[in-house]
Amino acid sequence: MRTAAARILRLILPHMDRRHVLDELEELYELRVQGQGQAAADRWYRRQVRTFVLRVLVPGRGGRRAPKGPEEHWRQRKMRNRLDVLWQDLCFALRTTCRWPGFTVMIVLILGVGIGGNVAIFSVLKALLFQPLPYPEPDRLVQVWQTHIDYRTRWPFSSPDYLDVREQNRSFEEFGAYSPQRFTVGRVEPERVYGATATAGVLRAYGVEPALGRLFTEGEELEGNNRVAVLSDRFWKRRFGAEPEVVGTAIAINGGYYQVIGVMPHGFEFISPWSPGEHVAVWTPLALSRDGASRTNQWLLGIARLRPEVTLEVAAAGLRAIASGLGEQYPSTNARKQLWVNPLKRQIVGDVRGQVLLLMGAVALVLLLACANVASMLLAKSARRRTEMAIRSSLGAGRWRIVGQLLTESMVLSLLGGIAGTLIGVAGLGAMRSLIPRDVPRMADVTIDGPVLLFSLGLALLTGLIFGLAPALHGSRSEVSEVLRGVRGGHTVRGGRARMLGFLAVGQLAIALVLTNGAALLYVSFRNVIRTPQVFDAEQTLTASISLDGDRYAENQARVGFWNQLLDGVAALPGVDHAALTNQLPLLGGINDEILSEEETFESRGNGTLTEITFISPDYFDAMGIPLLAGRALGDGDWQESVRGNVVVNKTLAERYWPGENAVGKTIRRNADPASWTAAIVGVVEDVRQWGPERNPIPQVYFPHERSTWNASWLVLSSKSDPLSHVPAIKNEVARLDPGLVVSDPRRMEQVFDSTTLQRRFITRLVGLFAVVALVLAMAGVFGMMSHEVAQRTHEIGIRAALGAARTNLLAMALGRALRLASIGAVIGIVGAVLSARVTRQWVFGMSGTNPAFMAGLVIFLLIVAVAATGVPALRASSWESALGIPPQRA
Question: What is the pTM of this model?
Answer without folding.
Answer: 0.75
